[in-house]
Amino acid sequence: MQRIFPWSLPVGPQRTGPDSWLFTVWAPSRQRVSLFFPETGREMAMEPLAGGFFRAEAADLPAGARYLFDLDGTIRRPDPASRHQPDDVHGPSALVDTAGFDWTDGRFVPPPPDRRVYYEIHVGTFTPEGTFEAAIDRLDHLAGLGVTCLELMPVAQFPGCRNWGYDGVYPFAPAACYGGAPGLARLVDACHARGLAVVLDVVYNHLGPEGNYLRDFGPYFTDRYRTPWGDALNFDGPGSGAVRSFFIQNALYWLREFHIDGLRLDAVHAIMDQSPLHLVAELAASTAAFEAATGRRTFLVAESHQNNPALVTEAAAGGLGLDAVWNDDFHHAVHAWLTGERGGYYADYGSREDVIAAAAEGFVYAGRYSSFFGHVRGLSAAHLPADRCVNCLQNHDQVGNRARGERLVSLVGRPTARVAAALLLLSPGAPLLFMGEEWGEDRPFLYYISHLDPDLVEAVRRGRKREFAAFRWQGEPPDPFAAETFEASRPDWAKKDDPEHAGLLAWYRELLALRAGSPALRETCRRMTRLWPLDAGLGLAMERRGEDGRILCLFNAGRRPVRAKVGTDGPPVAYARLFDSAEERFGGRGGFAPQRMETMLSLPPFSVVLYKREKGTSI
């Protein structure tokens, strides 16, 4: 028997010739494993290797051939590292040559951190067709908007064709209903041709409940921990070496085979691991090694509610070495301030001071007591570059986990949505938009599933109702299993050309263009930004400083006018107007702000004005 260390074998099918493939599977719970090809009835015994691995090379297999693993002659299961599941999660795996795509992106370089503008989509609802290829037709819109990173919600194979992607059970298999591996490769190549990086959401804290056969192979899961979504993965118990390798291989697979530029790591606070080297840190080190070997630039973005700056602190300085983290505090602070909602986690937010803290320092909860969590939460990230925080007004969670999936514009109206957009796009940090946000999409984004198990469907319905109780939302949520719920979540692309929506779209486009061209608005040192309240109402002022001077941003999110005083007690300071949200091109009734301002300005309700300090005036 050959001696093999658990981390030394690549799992999944590897093409070794025109019609030959090498199959490797980790199945330490089994004595015998065979390959079974259902289309021909052919069966082939696999060679047992040390560490619980089994391997076999088979010929006369064209791409697309189906196969299963026969486990001890008792059950047949798809490949845990399947590259394609054409017959859904319970059917056989199929062979696909993920290395055979003819790439044209050899000169593409992802944007640096200060130029990252993320745009999150759900592939299945982003277009009427709901496929990777159909999304290509919308890329010119994104590039023209000023987006630089397309972020895909999880695409790993899930049950049915209606799912957010967090119920994936085949981490290596792009969803067949989206177009599988060829479709994903074409989408990434098309993004790169337009200067767009691609970020893929991956889930390494749990797997979905249906079609999850990993327990039949080995100790992929542990009963030492639980996550809100099911059993935790085994990253620190017996057999964990191969499990860790499985998921690290998965991350590198997306980067290598599909030229993905960045990974968004779902809920890293639920990746349970007490190893000396946490899985997240090992993943960061592995991607750094991949960069060094290939010369490609990649990046890792975490989702976490812990407000832990160690996630985005360099490994050399004692951190885990990720590049950025979703900053829920920014969303919650702005949302609670503008909507007045105080249910659930919004109970911790709502003041203007929270918005100032989120914009100026990153985390609102940086050692503060949280009434929602019931403990002191977070540490300060103010010393880190601002681009380590990804800020948003909407994302799949914050919209889709509302009982009725309302967009922000549906809650506060278009004038307030303009103020919110300016807060997002002009504040320090990397902005993230959610599909349709830029034109004020008011169709909901809802939670949906298409599980094949009726008992599981009913369990999901009950679970969703329990989740909403803390928010005190009224009414019955839409049925997550209904096809109508899925269809209702598609953005209406015709609206972007509708005069009623065109003003908000122009506002987003112009602010993103201003941000792209202004070093002050892209400045990542938080000391170069200052925020302060205006009057006793809902007014804010923000000054951004950089190589191009100083930009003054004045916001009024309230129904009453707000006075803005500028300048100092010293020599006069003059500001030249850049933008006024009241301009007709932005959907307003006509600009009100003077072209030049020195001392005082009255901001009308629901307005934003941008000024730049003129050269030659006092600094």
Automatic annotation (TrEMBL):
It is found in: Cytoplasm. The record marks 397 as: Transition state stabilizer. Substrate binds at residues 264-269, 328-332, 396-401. Keywords: Carbohydrate metabolism, Cytoplasm, Glycosidase, Hydrolase. Residues 120-466 form the Glycosyl hydrolase family 13 catalytic domain. Pathway: Glycan biosynthesis; trehalose biosynthesis. One of its GO terms (biological process) is trehalose biosynthetic process. Coiled coil: none annotated. Its EC number is 3.2.1.141. This is Malto-oligosyltrehalose trehalohydrolase. The lineage of its organism: Bacteria, Pseudomonadati, Thermodesulfobacteriota, Desulfovibrionia, Desulfovibrionales.
